[in-house]
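Batch manifest line 356
LIGAND: 3,4-dihydroxyphenylalanine
JOB: complex structure
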Amino acid sequence: MGGQTIDKICDKGFPMDTLDELKSQILGEIEHATKLAVLEDVRVSALGKQGRLTLLMKELGQKTPEMRKALGAELNALKDVITQALDQRKAQLEEEVLNARLASETLDVSLPPRVMPQGKIHPLSHALDQAIHIFGQMGFVVAEGPDIEEDFYNFTALNIPLEHPARQEQDTFYLPPSAEDRQPLVLRTHTSPVQIRTMLKQKPPLRIIAPGRTYRSDYDATHTPMFHQIEGLVVDKKTHMGHLKGCLEEFFRLFFEDPALNLRFRPGYFPFTEPSAEVDALWKNGAWLELGGCGMVHPNVLRNCDIDPDEYQGFAFGMGLERITMLKYGIEDLRLFFESDLRWLNHYGFAPESRE
Ligand code: DAH
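JOB STATUS: finished
ARTIFACT:
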């Protein structure tokens, strides 16, 4: 339309009609504005300094009081309507812009970080990764079991009789029995129950390691109530002690990065192996250091898992992750692993490997 003047409006005799026309024109423009910039143009052309409505209002100032009275209120009302319509449309368009942005800028949280993380890998995690890697190359797969364990798996099935000292209160954290079947529950004192769980679930041949948390009521420079073990189990038809020795020798030589590392298998006793042995390594300082326990799986244990000991034999081993990590990195006090001292973590921690 354009070029409305008060005189023209009044000339027509029906100023309200002409104002209505202007109103529907501007409102139409507002409705059809599909971009914020276009909407801003509409605003300026209606309410800006030279805007259609502004000019009418300016003009009105020079007219007679009657005319001002007649049209002033109408113009103000029109201005309010238009301002409100502009605000509404603006909010709508802004929301559309935001929605379009949200739809286009999706965030893939699985992408590798562009900035290297500041944190360090805890030495225990690092050592465990290495151990899993070495055993993995030897054909072992990782098995898991629960931290809260039934007495049956932690003791009974492992041929640990009721009167065995490992069952005594000072070592084992006992929990209230399970709600459903009143099974006695413990925090597992070793990772050996994973042997039982695995043998009950899978048929031989088996070759597993079971790393995980273990719990005993003990606290000093070499004991914390929570610590980690790595369990190993191999069951097959012709498994013998020579396989056990070769396997652990290979593992420890790779883990300690010493191809000439000297191991000693010293007779020992564990209820779940027969014969049993303790494994020692001849350390750089000339001392024999104990690394773990091992042996041939006791026939009773195989029988408890429905495996015929006349057909299958197995070997098993268990080692403390903290112990082998302390030896590898020269860490003197076990408790430091769990103090979360940032200075210590920065010193003993490992830079994350680049994943690119
Ligand atoms: N479970 C034993 C412990 O916690 C360690 C162990 C010894 C595990 C001999 C074994 C084994 O599998 O054969 O002291």
